[in-house]
Write a structure and sequence with these properties.
- The structure holds two protein chains of two kinds.
- Chain A is built from twelve helices and no strands.
- The radius of gyration of chain A is 25 Å and the shape is extended.
- Chain B has a two-stranded antiparallel ribbon.
- The longest helix of chain B has 35 residues.
- Chain B folds into two domains: 45 residues; 203 residues, Orthogonal Bundle (MetI-like fold).
- Chain B is mainly alpha-helical.
- In chain B, β1 and β2 form a beta hairpin.
- Classes of the chains: A mainly alpha, B mainly alpha.
- Chains A and B meet through α2, α3, α5, α6 and α7 of A and α2, α3, α4, α5 and α6 of B.
- Chain B: Keywords: Cell membrane, Membrane, Transmembrane, Transmembrane helix, Transport.
Chain lengths: 268, 270
């Protein structure tokens, strides 16, 4: 039997494999069904749901357009400032780590070790870092900046590494053959290849950081999170409504702009 | 507009032609970035000197976490399994619900107004921080894992739904049109022409979302939505850092294993 015939007789897709995977997923699904516990569901659930929706539909407009340091606008700007500075610091820290974990630049063991460190950094929840940094700086947005920069390192470095490992090395070889120095090779061979990819990744991360920064307030690390959680725990739904509307609109606007810039960057 | 403020420089070629060279926009972008940085520093009270002089405080907690309290592991299993269950259930149900959501939001299979409204709803759902939706869910469904599952479910719909409708919009429409022309209904044509095209990417996205959800689920306990976050909150509150270290260690191992498994399957899919 030659190879073509063998290929013909092979089933087009491996039925047994798919069945086993499906069965496994089903078993896991049934196992996880026990996460549903209705005994804690109070009578007031629907009532609260109604008042939440009511609050979001009738936001506290005075709070929303209040420009003092208690108002939603100020808090949104503060949240953005935290995300912006955190992203920049995180990006600066992530670049050396990314080169250290790219397997085409450093030896394999070093790359593996750096990768494990990155996984550890990425997995620890942001709120834990928040508490650690509050020890350093005291509560406030400063702690938020440091937290955001630390948690962005993990993902930034991972995406940077993908860009670095895709580097076209033939350009470097041709530069060596015409006698470029190392600095020239980096400046004209590597930098232009990486710059737009890196920038696109950083802008994407800024998008995500804005979302992260909005919950850091929970541990006292500044931003709009703290007033939001307080308002929710105090059942002041009109306030919750105005904060959520501000936050959602801000995130949507930022996302729109960042998507535009990124398509421009990628397409050149 | 930029070219009007700073006119492009004129270069006269040897053959007498005049070409305009547009000035680079880099300086203005760098200037804007610097201004934004300065404003951010003002707003956040960023001070390098504080950071340098007190950074050792950061390692105090880490120092106390090592060595972790090994015997604490008996208390961790149950919440850890709860966390995995929450994210698994939320991810599976969310990914399934994302298919109709994406179908309604894709402008090439749905009429334009319906697609626009669905897209808008999906993006609102996506912008809500998971922690906030979890907190709202605890008010409605009571404290416990159900609230966390609901929060993860909502986030998964929004995330997988968005990536899925983008793929549907980029799918090859020829076979869809052919099937419609042959007399199939829209849903039948979607099922046999578009769904097979997007299926591998859809499964891969769902797996990726599940990976991320395990990490999110770990903090949901902070607002009372069940899982390992409750223990974490308790440990941090009591300053019982060796236990916190043990929780984090278990969390890191779990996330690493799940990532490895899911990466294996994702590579097979694509």
């Amino acid at each position: 039997m030659d190879a073509i015939e063998k290929q013909l007789n092979n089933p087009p897709w491996n039925l047994r494999y798919i069945l086993i995977v499906t069965a496994l997923v089903l078993i896991l699904f049934i196992w996880s069904l026990s996460a549903i516990n209705l005994e804690n569901m109070g009578q007031s659930g629907l009532e609260i749901a109604a008042s939440i929706i009511g609050g979001i539909l009738n936001p506290d407009l005075e709070l929303l357009f209040n420009f003092t340091s208690q108002g939603v606008m100020y808090l949104l700007v503060e949240t953005m400032a935290i995300a912006f500075l955190g992203t920049i610091i995180g990006a600066i820290l992530a670049i050396p780590l990314a080169f250290l974990s790219a397997s085409n630049i450093v030896p394999k063991p070093v790359a593996g070790l750096t990768r494990i460190i990155l996984i550890v950094i990425r997995t620890i929840p942001a709120l834990v870092y928040g508490l650690m940094f509050i020890r350093v700086t005291g509560p406030g947005p400063f702690a938020g900046v440091l937290t955001i920069s630390l948690i962005s390192i993990g993902m930034l470095a991972k995406l940077f590494v993908d860009a670095i490992e895709d580097l076209d090395t033939s350009i470097l070889e041709s530069m060596t053959s015409i006698g470029c120095t190392t600095f020239e090779k980096i400046r004209y061979g590597i930098f232009p290849q990486l710059f737009s990819m890196f920038l696109s990744v950083i802008i994407y991360r800024f998008d995500m950081n804005l979302r992260e920064a909005s919950i850091l307030g929970l541990v006292g690390a500044g931003g709009i999170g703290a007033p939001l959680i307080f308002a929710m725990n105090a059942y002041r739904w009109t306030e919750v409504g105005s904060i959520l509307i501000g936050l959602v609109v801000l995130i949507l606007i930022v996302e729109l702009f960042s998507n535009r810039i990124r398509t421009k960057l990628v397409r050149g | 507009m930029y070219d009007k403020i700073i006119p492009p420089s004129k270069i006269t070629l040897p053959n007498g032609k005049v070409v305009h060279e547009k000035k680079s926009r880099t300086p203005i972008i760098i200037l804007l970035l610097i201004i934004a940085t300065i404003i951010s520093v003002r707003f956040t009270n960023f001070e390098m000197s504080v950071l340098v002089s007190r950074i050792s405080e950061f390692f105090v907690i880490i120092d106390q976490m090592i060595p972790p309290k090994w015997e604490y592991i008996d208390f961790i299993w149950q919440p850890l399994m709860d966390t995995i269950k929450m994210s698994l259930l939320g991810s599976i149900l969310g990914s399934i619900a994302a298919v109709p959501a994406a179908y309604f939001a894709a402008s090439n299979v749905m009429s334009k107004p319906v697609a626009a409204v669905s897209k808008f709803l999906l993006s609102i759902l996506r912008t809500l921080p998971t922690l906030v939706s979890a907190l709202i869910a605890t008010f409605i469904f009571g404290l416990g894992t159900l609230a966390g599952t609901v929060a993860i479910f909502l986030f998964t719909i929004a995330y997988v739904g968005k990536l899925l409708y983008e793929q549907i919009e980029n799918a090859d429409m020829k076979s869809f049109e052919a099937m419609e022309a042959a007399g199939m209904t829209k849903i039948q044509a979607f099922r046999y022409a578009i769904f097979p095209q997007v299926l591998p990417n859809y499964l891969s996205t769902s797996l990726f979302c599940f990976e991320g959800n395990v990490r999110y689920a770990a903090i949901l306990g902070y607002v009372g939505a069940g899982g390992i976050g409750l223990l974490l909150d308790e440990g941090l509150g009591w300053r019982d850092y060796p236990s916190v270290g043990m929780i984090l260690l278990m969390l890191i191992i779990t996330v690493y294993l799940i990532e490895q498994v899911s990466e294996h399957f994702r590579k097979k899919l694509i």
